[in-house]
Amino acid sequence: MQSTSDEVLIGRIANGDRLAMQVLYARYHVRVFRFVVRLVRDEATAEDLISEVFLDVWRQAGRFEGRSTVSTWMLAIARFKAISALRRRLNEELDEETIGAIEDPIGRSRGRTGEEGQECNHPKVPNGTFG
After folding, report:
1. What is the fold, at CATH topology level, of the domain defined by 6-101?
2. Which of 9, 49, 50, 67 could form a disulfide with 20 if both were Cys (CB 3.0 to 4.6 A apart)?
3. Higher pLDDT, 27 or 1
4. With contact defined as beta carbons under 8 Å apart, do 24 and 10 qualify?
5. In angstroms, rounded to a whole number, what is the distance separating the alpha carbons of residues 43 and 41?
6. Burial class of 32 by CB neighbour count within 10 A (0 to 12, 13 to 18, 19+)
7. Is the CB of residue 33 less than 8 Å from the CB of residue 69?
């Protein structure tokens, strides 16, 4: 099976052949990992992404149309997943920066504390105001 073409392997994978998937993985996992790690610049993220890539290969093998080589198809999947991960990371970083930049003018600036000595994030309401 080691000498089997990539296209034949994809056809077998589409039919649920786990051995064909193992052969394809052994053939390309290092190449896909190196490609992804260059894009995301983080080995742990790259490891997660190549797992997703090969899971997609398993699930989508029946949709491979042969308009490109199998390796080009897999690298395109990897590229899409890497770009998506970079976008998620950028959004997470922006959210953390935004949260850190927002000041809480109530409570902290007045130095009030709650019942257990923790800062309040709401204004003190006089008794009887709502009822």
Report:
1. Rna Polymerase Sigma Factor; Chain: A (1.10.1740)
2. 9
3. 27
4. yes
5. 7
6. buried
7. no
Query: CA dist 57 to 1, 101, 123, 125, Å?
Result: 18, 42, 55, 59
**Would you list the domain boundaries of the chain?**
6-101
DSSP secondary structure, 81-107, as one string: HHHHHHHHHHHHHHHHHHHHH---TTT
Cβ burial 73-98 (10 Å sphere, 16+ → b, else e) = bbbebbeebbeebeeeeeeeeeeeee
Query: pTM of the prediction?
Result: 0.69
| pLDDT, average across residues 14-19 | 97
CA-to-CA distance for 29 and 27, rounded, in angstroms? 6
Q: Is it the case that residue 111 has pLDDT exceeding 60?
A: no
